[in-house]
Design brief:
heterodimer, A: about 325 residues, mainly alpha, Formate dehydrogenase/DMSO reductase fold, about 0% strand, B: about 190 residues, 10 helices
């Protein structure tokens, strides 16, 4: 008799029947990454369209926080690593078929871009801070000449960043709930919606608030559409995907998802923003805060549910 | 003619005032609507409405987070957390979340969304808040002693012809009527 020893990931209690790999760090990173992508896209696109005077907060002020948000997100990502001192190995290779490699290199591009983009605006807003640094002043002047091109490159990489936060999960074939192409666009739209909510929340210009409230309403509608299609896609898939969808349609995630994300995070703020559009007096901060919380909860539940979803055999 | 008729119906719906912009619904109409909501709650969920139960869930789960030992030793709280039950997993909690959402939307529709303390000019906001808080605490105790508040015990109870529901209703409103005499100065002055 020949004895064979089979070693499989399914013998690992951390992997089967449920992944226990990702806690709060990854959802936070995905949320902040998506938010940064959203802010930079809005800022870059409206700059390219020449709306500098109309939407000063979106274009000039809001992007200044992106390096900070990105740092917090990356720090969370770093905390999640098991071999923290080897993170640099991601930068020794480019793997076209690995979303993680894509993400690492995109971050390598977007992080300096966000800093450059913010600093040029920071000098416009607070020139006195730069008075003592002549060399910085002259190099920023040079940079300002290429703002249009900088914006284009930045929007390109931001789009990749926003999509990649979803693709990172959807490339994970072993977890049926993540295995859908909708996650990429869903996270991108959700990030844009969060960025628009930040404008509504913090901008001082009434007109800018109003326009971005409308943009947010449009994005919320798209997000609801994508979420419904996510479930329609699962339900018309294999039994594995149907089971994954059932976690949200009667299973353990039902209440949390439909009440707190669909209800409080999308539909309710959507109604409030719609009412505001129809000239009812609604404090704009409330839908904006709900959208932001909803965006974070969406990442948390998708990361969690993905780890719980499994193949049936 | 038709316009006048419609306007007449609207007047019945909207309390007193003759303009369409009145802020509050006629209380009799609102009461009937509440009855219909109770009926539909029975139809859809098989249970009546409640309110204090949601508060009880919040209190129990807060206590269970801070002092789990005390919760499981207390005769009153233990039954809500027995066998690892989550007290927040109660339909009343979600009903009350819905009440908050609906109230907020209704306030927005009527243009009444404003952070303010309503009180008689003779008393201060702080006094009003203190009175409301102490009244709320007493009502909280009372609702637990009486196994339900105005919604869960009186309204739902009466809807199913429970004797206890009628007694609750008489006790709650009768006591309020008597005690109003002593506290009237906070509301009508002089």
């Amino acid at each position: 008799m020949i004895e064979e020893i089979i070693t499989s990931g399914r013998m690992n209690h951390e992997i089967d029947p449920q992944l226990h790999i990702w806690g709060w760090e990854i959802p936070l990173y995905l949320f902040l990454g998506g938010l940064v992508a959203g802010i930079l896209i809005l800022s870059g696109v409206f700059y390219i369209l020449g709306r500098e005077e109309r939407y000063p907060f979106t274009i000039k002020i809001l992007p200044i926080v992106t390096p900070l948000l990105l740092s917090i997100g990356l720090f969370a990502l770093f905390l999640d690593l098991s071999h923290k001192l080897y993170f640099w190995r991601l930068y020794t290779i480019i793997r076209w078929n690995s979303p993680m490699s894509w993400g690492a290199w995109t971050l390598m591009a977007i992080f300096p871009l966000s800093i450059l983009w913010s600093v040029t605006w920071l000098e416009d807003l607070k020139p006195q801070w730069f008075n003592n640094y002549k060399w910085l002043h002259s190099s920023l002047d040079l940079l300002r000449k290429y703002r249009q091109k900088l914006a284009m490159i930045m929007v390109f990489f931001s789009l990749i960043l926003g999509m990649y936060t979803g693709i990172l999960l959807s490339a994970f074939n072993a977890r049926p709930f993540w295995n859908t192409a909708i996650l990429g666009p869903l996270f991108l739209v959700s990030g844009l919606s969060g960025a628009a909510a930040l404008v509504v929340l913090f901008s001082k210009e009434t007109r800018e608030k109003k326009i971005f409230g409308r943009i947010d309403l449009l994005l919320i509608t798209i997000e609801i559409f994508l979420l419904i299609h996510l479930f329609m896609g699962f339900l018309s898939g294999t039994q594995v995907h149907i089971e994954a969808a059932k976690m949200f349609l009667g299973g353990p995630y039902t209440t949390f998802f439909w009440v707190f994300i669909m209800g409080f995070g999308l539909v309710f703020p959507g109604i409030l923003e719609f009412m505001e559009l129809r000239k009812f007096k609604v404090p704009t901060a409330i839908p904006a805060i709900l959208v932001l919380i909803g965006g974070l909860l969406l990442r948390i539940i998708i990361v969690d549910a993905g780890q719980a979803s499994r193949w049936l055999y | 003619m038709l316009v006048r008729q419609v306007d007449g119906y609207i007047k019945i719906f909207m309390k007193g005032n003759n303009s369409l912009n009145t802020k509050y619904l006629n209380p009799y109409v609102a009461g009937m609507l509440l009855g219909l909501i109770l009926l539909s709650a029975f139809y859809f969920t098989g249970r009546g409405l409640g309110a204090s139960g949601a508060m009880k869930s919040v209190v129990t789960s807060t206590l269970n987070t801070i002092a789990p030992n005390h919760t499981s030793n207390s005769e009153y709280f233990a039954k809500y957390v027995a066998d690892g039950k989550n007290p927040m997993n109660s339909w009343l909690v979600f009903e009350i979340l819905g009440v908050v959402l609906g109230g907020f939307l209704s306030g927005a529709f009527a243009g009444r969304l404003k952070l303010k303390v309503e009180h008689h000019p003779f008393i201060t906001s702080n006094k009003r808040i203190a009175l409301a808080l102490s009244g709320g605490v007493l009502f909280g105790f009372g609702s637990q002693l009486g196994r339900g508040c105005t919604s869960g015990s009186a309204l739902t109870g009466m809807a199913v012809f429970s004797l206890q529901g009628f007694i609750s209703m008489i006790a709650i409103f009768g006591t309020a009527f008597i005690f109003a005499y002593f506290f009237r100065k906070n509301w009508i002055g002089g």
